[in-house]
Amino acid sequence: MKALIYHGPGRRAWEQTADPRLTEPTDAIVRVDAVTICGTDLHILKGDVPTVEPGRILGHEAVGTIVKAGSAVTTVKQGDRVLVSCITACGRCRYCRTGTFGQCLGGGGWILGHRIDGTQAEYVRVPFADTSTHLLPEGVSSEAALMLADILPTSYEVGVLNGRVRPGDTVVVVGAGPIGLAAVTTAQLFTPSHIVAVDPAAARLEAAKRLGADVLVGAGDDPATAVAELTGGLGADVAIEAVGIPETFELCTRLVRPGGHVANVGVHGAPATLHLEDLWIRNLTITTGLVDTRSTPALLDMIAAHRLDPTAFVTHRFGLHDMEAAYRTFSDPAGTGALKVVLSRTMTG
């Protein structure tokens, strides 16, 4: 088969490699029908995730068809159309028993495209298939389901739920890339009074407006002044960091009011300064997190019921073998306007 293989910082190749095989009775082999690229993949290529070894197949999001299932797999079978979650769960360890699948101790967590070969390939081996795939209803498109592999549950759980967004809150989302836009979308489930999107790129702010942000803060604007004017000088109730650089994290801590919440979602590759000399007296709650994907079934139900349509995140479509072109497009959002790219087996390019 062909796959996108990481060869060290700054180096990748779509090339021939061995087909995956079942190694455990709980495994399944999934034919990849649709796959996407994540900002985390770009962090890996920058060298920000040194635990990813050269030779690894990248990717942790896919929709596909099960072509082979191990003898212990009982809830999905050959021919089933499934969502492959970015988080793998053994289903038995202490963390999995409490729904904290991202911290799985039994061989799961974020392993696809990280510690084992991932989904940016023609086929992928999925460990613990019973608890790491989701059977897709007939009426849910592959594109819509693909947005549930990572960005929607990540933004919802690590941003909105960790931030404890409540009705009437003022919510600031710093960074209007795919993760930030998913936070804008899912924050609306809790009817905040205002959603403020902060991003220097005009195209991304327009996307944030389409998806529900009502206040836009762009290049040349002062986020602190905008939030202060909106809240009578109090600051935001919740600030969601969706970039992953020190400046945006520190900005979030300045934008929230005393008693507010800072929910960090971005993947950081460098240290950020925590200004406790200023923050200790303000009663702030700061959370970080890796998604657990415990919300995926509920989000899938919302899509099936037409209460949520995440296909608005998809801006570019490619054939599966156009992986290099898709990476070039996704890695240059300022030039291409890319939010999420989808690569499909059924497209020829």
Could you describe the 3D structure shown?
With 349 residues, the protein is an alpha/beta fold. It folds into two domains: 2-150 and 293-344, Alpha-Beta Complex (Quinone Oxidoreductase, Chain A, domain 1), CATH 3.90.180; 153-287, 3-Layer(aba) Sandwich (Rossmann fold), CATH 3.40.50.720. The protein contains 13 helices and 15 strands. The chain has helices spanning 39-46, 94-97, 129-132, 142-146, 151-161, 178-187, 202-210, 223-231, 246-255, 276-279, 296-304, 323-330, 333-336, and strands spanning 2-6, 12-16, 28-36, 62-69, 81-84, 123-126, 133-135, 170-174, 194-198, 215-217, 236-241, 256-264, 285-287, 314-319, 340-344. Strands 3, 4, 5, 6, 7, 14 and 15 form a seven-stranded mixed sheet that branches. A six-stranded parallel sheet has the order 10-9-8-11-12-13, with helices on both faces. The mean pLDDT is 96.
Please outline the helices and strands.
Blueprint: E1 2-6, E2 12-16, E3 28-36, H1 39-46, E4 62-69, E5 81-84, H2 94-97, E6 123-126, H3 129-132, E7 133-135, H4 142-146, H5 151-161, E8 170-174, H6 178-187, E9 194-198, H7 202-210, E10 215-217, H8 223-231, E11 236-241, H9 246-255, E12 256-264, H10 276-279, E13 285-287, H11 296-304, E14 314-319, H12 323-330, H13 333-336, E15 340-344
Parallel strand pairs: 8-9, 8-11, 9-10, 11-12, 12-13, 14-15
Antiparallel strand pairs: 1-2, 3-4, 3-6, 3-15, 4-5, 5-7
Helix pairs in contact: 5-6
